[in-house]
From TrEMBL:
It comes from Cyprinus carpio. Residues 478-491 have a biased composition (Polar residues). One of its GO terms (molecular function) is calcium ion binding. Its cofactor is Ca(2+). One of its GO terms (biological process) is phosphatidylinositol-mediated signaling. It catalyses: a 1,2-diacyl-sn-glycero-3-phospho-(1D-myo-inositol) + H2O = 1D-myo-inositol 1-phosphate + a 1,2-diacyl-sn-glycerol + H(+); a 1,2-diacyl-sn-glycero-3-phospho-(1D-myo-inositol-4,5-bisphosphate) + H2O = 1D-myo-inositol 1,4,5-trisphosphate + a 1,2-diacyl-sn-glycerol + H(+). This is 1-phosphatidylinositol 4,5-bisphosphate phosphodiesterase.
Length: 1083
């Protein structure tokens, strides 16, 4: 088994990076060149270079967006700089020495750092720096790692004397200068602005002491005290209890995920306790607990979830695919600058679908261009864009890239140029030929991402009969549409009846060609008018692809959407339709279930409405819930929808592909996004309490935290907000408020927690969006991100998170009784309470005997036939009361009187009564403990003295005549039961008039009948649970069919210790339906 599959690796900082190499730094706008020595710190936080004057420049590796070497690096144009690098000499090998490092806070505002190496090492440096910059574990580091990053920077920022200036520390923490100076003094460090600190004095331990005094944590002290009960330390037993009660996910199975053991806790104490004497005694201090809560064990995101690789062998429609809209733009839709660099940045960010708006170039070059037609946006060459895509397509993800062409080039010659550039620049990466297993025929599925790895697919209007002249193509008749409505025109399959039949019958699909032509004719005229007056913009339709471009289109063929019924009838998985956001919202509101079914088979692309001229974005969440694959956004705008998009695609190794949830891709089940209940999915309840913030602002201001849940339409839509911090405090504000609760989150795998920190004036300070199923429970530090999703070094929020299975309020007590029987069990009653209870029971016994005697004596007076009723009733009624408990109690009674002995033999006969069917269970009989009650003979003894039995005998003849009739009318069976019990009790009392055993047994039988009803209820609940378990196992079994081999092995390794024989036989039972599938035991 590949154990690295679900393990994140630390950045690999190679030795040569730490030692450094000689480079020459140059700038595009200067003739000056600067010799430097470039290095990286051993932990991989910073890249820095030192010039000959021993001045140091730093580059935060978290800000690095790209590294380029060779022909893709920037090269100097000034002759003087070129001469320095001997670039004009053929043997200079300058391309092997050129290195460009691209940094920036987002995809638009970029800085280029240009170097020439003394040796031919540029490519090696470029590759290793980029790998560290895109390390997943580093981007999701714990709080302690970010504090280490601050310490590394301060340690490296030395002056010419090799000392650390105090002014650098003051710059690092500008919120409160006096607090910084006081914290330095408390750590025995110089505090004057012009003071310096020797590196051997500024140790990591001294830095931790400084942080403890600069940012005290009273809330952690309170948590500590609540577990130690006032002691100054926490023992390993206390810490074990803390970890198992507060830090553990209560939903985890204790067999598969055992509780933390004291020996494990001992290792944690040794790792985090700053006092060696405490650690040797197995104790941890409040400071040690704080360091633990900032350590790698308490990362707010489940690291195994981040490391998990999705199954990439399913058809492409089963995935969400990271997509960009109008990729070339760097700003607004009307006056923005177009740049090939945006294609690089989107690909590096994980985008797997890019948009190219292609227009005819002007003479004399007649080079195809990319721009936003009929606007004032700038133009860029089509060829430059193709080169940028070729260089960056597979740097951060090896999975296929889809190029969505919006083609307005109505020139055969220029379309041929476009096709030529695609073929020659992309080379083998361009998918031209179909895969043999996946023909373009109705009913055939699409290939999987793994089968198309490293390939580029073209999405362009494909004509079934390639045109050869411009007038055969559909000319643009109005401005280019920002919405790609033309992209989706059905005319890509509309054939001219005067043209000869196409050479490729598979591509044209003859059986459906007539339908395609009809659809095109019906909608062609409507489209042009519609586009001028709708969110779909005012652009004209695309032109028809000529032969060269049409030949490049295969598995992603755009088609105008007609209806879900029409699409299901055609059943073409390779056809994709595009929807403007407003049309998509309408479809979700009216046909959500149909759209989910459509997206299981083929693909949808959503794009912003044309009125979003500021390049703002719509929320992608509703379209993800409908299963839409390509939800295209404007990557130049870092608003909330883009932040949500980046948070989602941070998983599955940032490949740009995410396997959709089971409910939106399984063909055997339908899913309604507006449902309030999902079968087989257990809803969750999220509780989050905000405690405090750390280094939230550089200013002395009040701050607040907003918490929001994003999920299905029926999920709780609440947005909570703390009050502003009581005093201006940007370093360690506190909020002592009640927890925020989000109940009944229907589909936790498609719900997200968003936390935003703001200043009192509303200024954004930081945020974090985390999928609910990746959220770690317990006390956590949430390290914040910038608007562009880059990790912020200092800001964090301390919270407590609890995620539980949702239980309706009506069943909360019942759930507690099931899961915590010890807590809900009442303490045993005292002797005084038992005596009081016996008095009440004895009084009730005599009332029951009195009523039943009167009913029993009336019965034989009616007729001789009725005199025979007691034996008949004995066959049905009395056993019903005694059936549930024949074994423990009735046995001593036959010793006192032989009559009850035959009754246990008659008990199996009365099974017709469904409610009396459960097997006898001795435990309920033992619970009332009837044995001790006879010992308390002071209660039964007074009863024989009063002797109420003989006195009431004449009264039944006068008073109880009407009683049996209503009883028999309302419930004949109950009357028969009562008569039988009364007869038996009378016989017993006549034989032993002074012995209370008869009514004791009657009380026992009454209790048993009540117990039976209770047990019947529990039996029904048990049966329901068993059925639900069977359904869940069956559902799980189906899922196991598609497990990859290594995951199957992982399941087997967990199950084998408990079911070794089943696992051994699992491989042979796939077809036997024995609860074992695909070599995995699931029973």
């Amino acid at each position: 088994m590949n154990r690295n599959r679900y393990t994140l690796q630390e950045p690999d900082v190679k030795e040569y990076l730490v030692k450094g190499d000689r480079f020459t730094k140059w700038k595009e706008d200067s003739k000056k060149t600067t010799p430097v020595t470039m290095k990286m710190d051993p932990k991989g936080f910073y890249l820095y270079w030192i010039n000959q004057s021993k001045e140091t420049e730093f580059l935060d590796i978290a800000t690095i967006r790209d590294t380029r070497a060779g022909k893709y690096a920037k090269l100097p144009k000034h002759p003087k700089v070129r001469n320095v690098f001997n670039m004009d000499f053929p043997d200079s090998h300058h391309l092997a020495k050129a290195l460009t490092i691209v940094t920036g806070p987002d995809t638009v505002n970029l800085t280029y750092h240009n170097f020439f190496a003394a040796k031919e090492v540029a490519q090696t440096w470029a590759d290793d720096i980029l790998a560290i910059a895109y390390n997943t574990l580093r981007a999701n580091a714990c709080r302690q790692v970010f504090l280490e990053k601050v310490y590394v920077r301060l340690s490296l920022q030395t002056n010419k004397d090799g000392k650390i200036p105090v002014k650098n520390i003051l710059k690092m923490f500008p919120a409160d200068k006096k607090r910084v100076e006081a914290a330095l003094a408390a750590a025995n460090l110089p505090k004057g602005k012009f003071d310096t600190i020797k590196p051997d004095v500024f140790t990591e331990a001294a830095f931790k002491t400084f942080i403890l005094h600069l940012c005290p944590r009273p809330e952690i002290n309170e948590i500590f005290t609540s577990f130690t009960k006032g002691k100054g330390f926490m023992t390993k037993e206390m810490l074990t209890k803390f970890l198992n009660e507060k830090q553990r996910d209560s939903r985890l199975n204790e067999e598969l995920f055992p509780l933390v053991r004291p020996e494990q806790v001992k290792n944690l104490i040794e790792k985090y306790e700053p006092s060696s004497s405490n650690a040797s005694r197995g104790q941890i201090s409040p400071e040690g607990l704080m360091f633990y809560l900032m350590g790698s064990e308490t990362s707010v995101v489940k690291l195994d979830k981040l490391a998990q690789s999705h199954d990439m062998t399913q058809p492409i429609p089963h995935y969400f695919i990271k997509s960009s809209h109008n990729t070339y733009l760097t700003a607004g839709q009307l006056t923005g600058v177009s740049s090939p660099e945006m294609y690089r940045q989107c690909l590096l960010a994980g985008c797997r679908c890019l948009e190219l708006d292609c227009w005819k170039g002007k003479p004399p070059d007649e080079e195809p261009i990319i721009t936003h037609g009929f606007t004032m946006t700038t133009e860029i060459l089509f060829k430059d864009v193709i080169e940028a895509i070729a260089e960056s397509a597979f740097k951060t993800s090896k999975y296929p890239v889809v190029l969505s062409f919006e083609n307005h080039v109505d020139s055969v010659k220029q379309q041929e140029k476009m096709a030529h550039y695609c073929r020659t620049i992309f080379g083998d990466a361009l998918l031209v030929d179909l895969l043999e297993k996946y023909p373009l025929k109705p009913g055939h599925p699409m290939p999987s991402p793994s089968e198309l790895m490293g390939k580029i697919l073209i999405k362009n209007k494909k004509s079934s009969t390639p045109a050869s002249k411009p007038d055969q193509a559909k000319k643009a008749s109005s401005p280019e549409q920002a919405n790609e409505a033309a992209d989706t025109s059905e005319s890509n399959q509309a054939a001219d009846p005067n043209q000869p039949a196409p050479a490729n019958p598979e591509a044209s699909d003859p059986p459906h060609a007539a339908d395609d032509r009809e659809e095109h004719d019906d909608h062609d005229e409507q489209d042009e008018e519609k586009m001028k007056n709708s969110d779909e913009g005012t652009a004209g339709q695309e032109v028809t692809a000529y032969e060269e471009m049409s030949a490049l289109v295969n598995y992603v063929q755009p088609n105008k959407f007609i209806s879900f019924e029409n699409a299901a009838k055609k059943n073409k998985s390779f056809v994709i339709s595009s929807f403007v956001e407003t049309k998509g919202e309408s479809l979700i509101a009216k046909n959500a279930v149909d759209w989910v079914e459509y997206n299981k088979r083929q693909m949808s692309r959503i794009y912003p409405k044309g009125t979003r001229v500021d390049s703002s974005n719509y929320s992608p969440q509703p379209f993800w819930t409908a299963g839409c694959q390509f939800v295209a956004l404007n990557y130049q705008t870092m608003d909330f929808p883009m932040q949500l998009n980046m948070a989602l695609f941070e998983f599955n190794g940032r490949t740009g592909y995410l396997l959709k949830h089971d409910v939106v891709r399984r063909s055997d089940k339908k899913f309604d996004p507006f449902t309030d209940r999902i079968d087989t999915i257990i809803a969750s309840t999220l509780t989050i309490k905000i405690y405090s913030g750390q280094f939230l602002s550089d200013k002395h201001v009040k701050t607040g935290v907003e918490v929001e849940l994003i999920g299905l339409p029926k999920d709780p839509k609440r947005k909570y907000r703390t009050k502003w911090s009581t005093t201006p405090n940007g370093i360690n504000p506190e909020w002592n408020e009640e927890p925020f609760v989000f109940e009944k989150i229907l589909l936790p795998e498609m719900a997200y927690l968003r936390l935003v920190v703001q200043e009192e004036g509303g200024k954004f300070l930081g945020h974090r969006i985390i999928p609910l199923d990746a959220l770690q429970t317990g006390f956590q530090h949430i390290c914040l991100r910038s608007e562009s999703n880059m990790p912020l070094t200092l800001p964090s929020v301390f919270v407590h998170i609890e995620v539980k299975d949702y239980i309706p309020a009506a069943f909360a007590d019942f759930s507690d009784a099931l899961f915590n029987p010890v807590k809900t069990t009442k303490p045993p009653k005292t002797e005084v309470e038992l005596n009081a209870q016996m008095h009440v029971i004895n009084a009730l016994k005599w009332i029951i005997i009195y009523d039943n005697f009167s009913a029993a004596e009336e019965a034989p007076a009616s007729s001789e036939a009725e005199a025979a009723v007691p034996p008949a009733e004995g066959d049905s009624a009395p056993p019903a009361e005694e059936t549930p408990a024949p074994e423990p109690e009735p046995e001593p009674k036959p010793e006192e009187k032989p009559e009850p002995e035959p009754k246990p033999e008659e008990k199996p006969e009365p099974e017709p009564k469904a409610e009396e069917k459960p097997d006898p269970e001795p435990k309920p009989e033992e619970k009332p403990e009837p044995e001790p009650k006879p010992e308390e003979k002071p209660e039964p003894e007074p009863k024989p003295e009063e002797k109420p039995d003989p006195e009431p005998e004449p009264k039944p003849e006068e008073k109880t005549e009407p009683d049996p009739e209503p009883k028999s009318e309302e419930n004949p069976e109950a009357a028969a039961d009562a008569d039988a019990v009364a007869t038996e009790t009378k016989e017993s009392s006549e034989e032993t008039p002074s012995d209370p055993s008869g009514y004791l047994r009657l009380s026992h039988d009454t209790f048993i009948s009540i117990t039976v009803e209770i047990m019947l209820m529990f039996t029904a609940v048990t049966d329901l649970c068993v059925q639900l378990n069977k359904d869940t196992v069956a559902e799980h079994a189906k899922n196991m069919w598609s497990l990859p081999g290594d995951l199957s092995e992982a399941v087997n390794s967990c199950v084998q210790p408990h079911f070794p024989e089943h696992v051994e036989k699992a491989g042979e039972s796939r077809s036997e339906n024995t609860g074992q599938f695909n070599h995995v035991f699931v029973g």
